[in-house]
Every structure is written in C-alpha cells, then in structure tokens.
Amino acid sequence: MGNISLNQVTKSFGDVQVIPPLDLEINEGEFVVFVGPSGCGKSTLLRLIAGLEDTTSGAISIDGNDATSLAPAKRGLAMVFQSYALYPHMSVRKNIAFPMKMAGIDETVQNAKIDAAAKALNLTDYLDRKPGQLSGGQRQRVAIGRAIVREPAAFLFDEPLSNLDAALRVGMRLEIMELHEKLQTTMIYVTHDQVEAMTMADKIVVLQAGVIEQVGSPLELYHAPRNKFVAGFIGSPKMNLIEGPEAAKYDATTIGIRPEHLTVSNTEGMWKGIVGVAEHLGSDTFIHVHETGLMDMMTVRITGDIAAKHGDTIYLTPVADQMHRFDADGLRIA
Ligand SMILES: Nc1ncnc2c1ncn2[C@@H]1O[C@H](COP(=O)(O)OP(=O)(O)OP(=O)(O)O)[C@@H](O)[C@H]1O
Ligand SMILES: [Mg+2]
Fold first, then answer.
1. CATH number at residue 292
2. Which member of 173, 211, 258, 320 has the greatest number of CB atoms within 10 A?
3. How far apart, in whole angstroms, are the C-alpha atoms of residue 152 and residue 113?
4. 84 and 146 inside one domain
5. What is the count of structural domains for the chain?
C-alpha cells in the first residue's frame, strides 16, 4: 500500500498553467520530499495528490487504482499542514479520536489506536491536556497523531515544521524520520528547505516553475546534479558557478565547485582573491572571497577554524575530480 503514480498530470488556474505535464512514481514506503523555491508548485502538487485540487488533465493512481476524480476522503491519504487546525476546546485524546469518531469506529478500538499513536509520538502524558497547554512541537505531534490513527496509505506533509523555532524543527525532523522507520508508510513531505530535503528524503523531487528538474536520492543530487538549477539549489553554502574563459578551459560553459571542494593557502594556488567576510562557526569556517576575476563572490568552506580576516590575500584550489561541468543549456556534461 502507498504506491502513487502521476501520469501526464497538469494543473491550470484560469488560463495560467502552473504544472505542465508531469510524470512521477512514488513507491510504497518511500520518504519523498518535494523541494523548490516559493511558488514552484509544491503545495499544488501535494493538493492534487490529496484530491484537494482537481487535475486539469492527466491521471493519478493510488495502489494501482485510478484516483483522478476520487473525493479526498476516499483516497486513504492523510494530510498534515503547517497550521495544526486542532480543536481548542477538546483534549488531545479527543482531538486524535475525532476522525475515528466521525467514521463510527468502536470506542475500544479508538482507545487502543490513540494509545499506540501517543506512544509513538511521546504524547502519552499529554492526552488530557487542551491544545492551548501544549508547545508548538507538541501541537504538531497531535496533528500527526490524528493522521496516524486513520492508518493512511500515505502521509502528506505540507511544510509542517515552518511554524516552529530552529531547535524544535530539528527535533521534530528527527521524530518524523523515526516515525517513518516505525510505520514504514509512504510519506510525501513538502519543504523549501534543502537541508530538510537532504536529511529526510529517500527520494528528492526538485521542482522549478512546476517542472521536475531532477528526481534522485540526496547523494545523487549532491554528486551529480542534472543541471545548474539543481546544482545551485542543493548544498549549503551554495555551489560556486563560474562562467567565461575559466570555464572554457574545461570545455564547459559553466563550471561548478562546491565550497567544501576548495582548498586554501596564503601563498599559492590556482585562483587568487581577497577575503571579504569570514564566518567562524567553530566547526567550520565559511570564507567569502572577492576579486577572483571568476565570479562576484566565491564561497569556501573549511573544516575547523582557520585564521582568515577581511582584506587577506587568499589562494584557492579546487579539489581534483570534484568539479561539475555544464553546457550552454545549463545541462550537466558527463
Ligand atoms: N488557487 C489558486 N489560484 C491561482 N493561482 C494559484 C492558486 N494556488 C496556487 N496558485 C499559483 O500556483 C503557483 C504554485 O503555487 P504553490 O502554492 O503550489 O507553490 P509552493 O511551491 O507551494 O510555494 P510556497 O513555497 O510559497 O508554499 C504559484 O504561482 C501560485 O501563485
Ligand atoms: Mg506551498
């Protein structure tokens, strides 16, 4: 259970097509992340799968059955949004029970499922509280609990963590991954945060303007981005993309070097530049280098703390075999 297949799916709002014909296979048990800049169509695609939007053309099938015009409630999927939409006057237990109550499920069965969900989500001690007495992370867990008890074929998450502060986001990210390990249910997770995509996904779908730029595992995308867009989007700090005569030396229109694939020296190296800002994180140092004559600003990532300050002359050398090449259309050259 939990195979989802999109075949030539399109979506237009009025005469604006936001999703051109798109094919996508999501396999049972996979953790799939849709990632891309704001407005690229991530939520629209998720809502098409959920049935909250109608497709303009094309077909969606779930577990081999045509679901294209099936009502959302009949698709067997559970959606978790950024806003938790809990009932404030109901206890956590009642909030989680709500969909089962609506479905007329026996109360003993309800309670068993609530207890199992609460255990999986570390909510056992909070079942009698009201949402107003919970932290943001706990509320999000209740919303997930309400989805779990429906035993969906797949969970659909639309930026579920964006209301949470940075530390809580990391904690919840791990909890959702743990939950996926436990349940082994298909999960589709929308985010614009490429770090979330890299850390959580079995399979990342990179979208731009409704078009799938690449589908692959996090490390496939990191090591072999199909085009300049994916190269620039995946990885933090961003890959340095160099055009012009330096790229031509490598028979490419653009060459790309990730910040972590540059070595530095104060005396010698392939490219000379001047240190702009050096960010000392302790674990790493990010150095932003100007006046290389290659691009506006190059970024270098060095493990650990190294002495580098504004105005220093610095020499950069790319690590052999770690250079990416792109042609005039921005496509990867093998
Ligand atoms: N109901 C609607 N009517 C008209 N246009 C819409 C509607 N919903 C979305 N769009 C447009 O479709 C495109 C994709 O929107 P969508 O919400 O899917 O983007 P997104 O990738 O989820 O962005 P974000 O990261 O900001 O949430 C956008 O250009 C948006 O303006
Ligand atoms: Mg969105």
1. 2.40.50.140
2. 258
3. 13
4. yes
5. 2
102-159 pLDDT tens trace? 889 999 999 999 999 898 888 999 999 999 999 888 898 899 999 889 889 999 999 9
Name the closest ligand to CA 42.
1
Ligand 1 atom 26: residue of nearest CA: 38
Ligand 1, atom 3, lies closest to the CA of 13
Nearest CA to 313 out of 257, 262, 271 is that of: 271
| Atom number of ligand 1 nearest to Cα 192 | 25
Among 4-8, 38-42, 90-94, 171-175, the least confident range: 171-175
pLDDT score recorded for residue 165: 79
In this structure, the residue with its CA closest to atom 27 of ligand 1 is 38
Q: Measure 45 CA to ligand 1 centroid, in angstroms.
A: 10
The CA 59 to ligand 2 mean position distance, Å, reads: 22
Is residue 137 a part of any domain in this protein?
yes
- Of the residues 201, 230, 259, the one at which a domain ends: 230
At 304 the three-state DSSP class reads: coil
Quote the pLDDT of residue 334.
Answer: 86
Question: 249 and 213 share a domain?
Answer: no
Instruction: Please give the distance, rounded to the nearest whole angstrom, from the Cα atom of residue 116 to the centre of ligand 1.
Output: 36
186-196: per-residue pLDDT in tens? Answer: 999 999 888 99
Gap between the Cα atoms of 204 and 42, Å rounded: 12
Kindly report the CATH number assigned to the domain that includes residue 41.
3.40.50.300
At residue 120, the pLDDT reads 83
> In the sheet that 186-191 helps form, which strands lie side by side, from edge to edge?
77-80, 154-158, 186-191, 31-35, 203-208, 211-216
172 within a domain of the structure (yes/no): yes
Find the 4 Cα to ligand 1 centroid distance in Å.
22
Please give the mean pLDDT across all residues of the chain. Answer: 94
Q: Which domain holds residue 111?
A: 4-230
